[in-house]
Design a protein that fits this description.
alpha+beta, 3 helices, globular
Length: 171
């Protein structure tokens, strides 16, 4: 018999707030659905440049707000921090209580790094989609974009965006 140790959204939110008070922790972490801290290495300058460029392009093409590394409360994978999150401006006013967590942003982007494992990326994609994220864009190590929706991978963004990423960052 297995015991489900998945924490409730409220428990995850409170744990996230408590952990955020710990000044000894680095800023690059997420929480699993069980409340375990998942540490990530500090992003490279190349990675951060790509994220900033994507956020800029999303905002220019869609309006609203696009930010880098906003915490998202998922229904099946805990608190995850996608590389870029986009939502209409008015939706940014609806944050999860004092913990400043987003629920169901319209669009998230994950920029892959050499250390990413495909099983973990797939877990995140499914968690975002199960949490009512409409589109998950994955930027591969080679700059290839894939657009994930609840119905599967699509050939283009349903938001009608075209991301043009600097080729020199993928050499």
């Amino acid at each position: 018999m297995s015991i489900d140790t998945t924490l409730s959204p409220d428990a995850l939110s409170h744990l996230w707030a408590e952990i955020a008070k710990n000044e000894q922790l680095p800023d690059w972490y997420e929480l699993s659905e069980h409340g375990e801290i998942i540490m990530s290495p500090k992003p490279s300058n190349r990675h951060q440049r790509l994220c900033a460029e994507i956020a800029f392009q999303l905002r220019a093409q869609l309006g609203g707000e696009a930010v880098v590394e906003a915490a998202v409360l998922t229904v099946s994978a805990g608190v995850r921090v996608p590389d870029v999150v986009w939502m209409p401006a008015e939706k940014w006013q609806i944050l999860r209580t004092d913990q400043d967590l987003l629920e169901a942003p319209e669009l998230v982007v994950e920029v892959l790094s050499p250390g990413n494992r495909q099983i973990e990326i797939n877990h995140k994609i499914q968690a975002y989609l199960a949490s009512s994220v409409q589109e998950v864009i994955i930027v591969g190590l080679d700059g290839v974009l894939t657009y994930h929706h609840a119905t599967g991978i699509q050939p283009a963004s349903t938001f009608g965006i075209t991301l043009t990423l600097p080729r020199h960052l993928f050499r």
